[in-house]
Amino acid sequence: MTPFRGWAAPSKAAPLERLNFDPGPLDAEDVEIAVEYCGVCHSDLAMVDSEWFPTTYPVVPGHEVVGTIVAVGPNAKGRSVGQRVGVGWHSRSCQHCQFCVGGEQHLCGTRQPTIIGRHGGFADKLRAHWSWALPIPAGLDPAAAGPLMCGGGTAFLPFVIHDIKPTDRVGVVGIGGLGHLAVKFAKAWGCEVTAFTSSPSKREEALLLGAHRTVSSVDVKELKAHAGQLDFLLVTVGASLEWDALMGTLAPKGRLHLVGVVTEAMKLRTNGLLSWQRSISASPTPSPVTLMKMMEFCARHGIAPQVEHFPMSQVNEALEHLRSGKARYRVVLDADFV
Question: CB–CB of 177/147 below 8 Å?
Fold first, then answer.
C-alpha cells in the first residue's frame, strides 16, 4: 500500500515536518479522501502545543477537510468515488448508542475526533466513516468550505439547539474565526446583531460582516451601557472576559452560550443569573445532519468564511500566521503534494 504523506508535529510546539505513514487497510465502512483543501483551526494549534491535554506525537493536525473520494469500503453507504465531501472535527461514531440512533452522533461516548489518536488532514489523503464524510453542496466554493466543517458548524449549532428566532436580539463576542461566521449566520437568520470585540480595528469590519452595532468586550462602562438588551449572547473566544458585565447585557430569561474553549475558571456572580432567570450553556461541534443543514443554509444565503490561502508546503508559516492573531479570519491550506 502506498503510504499517506502528511505534515506532522514531532513534539510539543515543534515545527511540522514531513511524515509518511501507513494508514492500514481501508475499513469496510470508511471512505478514503484525496485532500484538496484543509482549514487551519485553533484546535490544530492546541494539539500541536498540548494545550488541552498531553498530545501523543507525532501528530498530523487538520480537521477541516474538503476533498474527493478515491476509495470506498464495501459497506459504505451513499458515497461514491469522485464525490466531493467534507470532514470536520469528528470522523467516526459508534452508530448504535442512543445518541447516534437519535441523530446526535457528536455526543456519542466513543466518537472519534479526526486528529486525536489518529492522523488528520494536513496530508494528501484522509479516511473517515462514510456518515461523517458529507457531500459538499453545489452552491459552496470548495476552496473556502473547509472551515465550515468545524468552525462553521460550531457557530451554527447554538442557533438550532436553542431555537433562535428572527425576532431575537443576538450578541456575538469575538470577531474571529468563529465569530465572523456567527455574525453572518445571525444576520441571515433575521436577528438584530450586536458584535462584541476587544479590537478597535475590528469594529468597522464587524459592521461590514452584518452586525447592526459594535460594543467593546473589555470596557465595563460600555458593556453596562448596553445592559438588559440581548436575548442570546454567543461567546466564540477562549479568553477570560468580564463575565458579570457580559451577563448583564442579557434581558430577563436571556442566555449566554459558550463555543470557545475557556481554559481558566469563569468568575461569575450568581445574583445576575438568579434575579433575571438567565442561563449559561455550551456546545461542541455538531452532528452530521446539522453540518448538512448548516452547509445548505450557507449555500442558500451566500455565506462563506473569509479565508486566506497558503500552500500546504508552507504549513508552518500558516500556523504562525494564525498563532500571531493575523488571520482574517480563517486559514486554508491548499494541498500541493507532488
Answer: yes
Where a domain ends, among 282, 304, 325? 282
182 shares a domain with 135: no
Could you give the CA distance from residue 306 to residue 329 in angstroms, rounded to a whole number?
Answer: 6
C-alpha 88/C-alpha 100 separation (Å) is 17
One domain for residues 53 and 102: yes
- Residue 193: which domain range? 153-282
Same domain, 133 and 10: yes
| CATH number of the domain within which 263 lies | 3.40.50.720
Same domain, 241 and 303: no
Query: How many structural domains does the chain have?
Result: 2
Sequence-ordered alpha helix ranges (H) in 148-305: 151-161, 179-189, 202-209, 220-224, 243-248, 271-276, 288-301
Residue 324, domain CATH: 3.90.180.10
Question: Global pTM?
Answer: 0.97
Based on the domain organization, do 85 and 126 belong to the same domain? yes
And the C-alpha cell for 202?
475590528
CA-CA distances (angstroms) from residue 171 to 49, 160, 231, 264? 31, 16, 8, 22
pLDDT truncated to tens, each residue of the chain (338 aa)?
799 999 999 999 999 999 999 999 999 999 999 999 999 999 999 999 999 999 999 999 999 999 999 999 999 999 999 999 999 999 999 999 999 999 999 999 999 999 999 999 999 999 999 999 999 999 999 999 999 999 999 999 999 999 999 999 999 999 999 999 999 999 999 999 999 999 999 999 999 999 999 999 999 999 999 999 999 999 999 999 999 999 999 999 999 999 999 989 999 999 999 999 999 999 999 999 999 999 999 999 999 999 999 999 999 999 999 999 999 999 999 999 98
Closest C-alpha to 177, from 333, 322, 13:
322
Same-domain status, 9 and 126: yes
Q: What is d(CA 42, CA 337) in angstroms, rounded to the nearest whole number?
A: 24
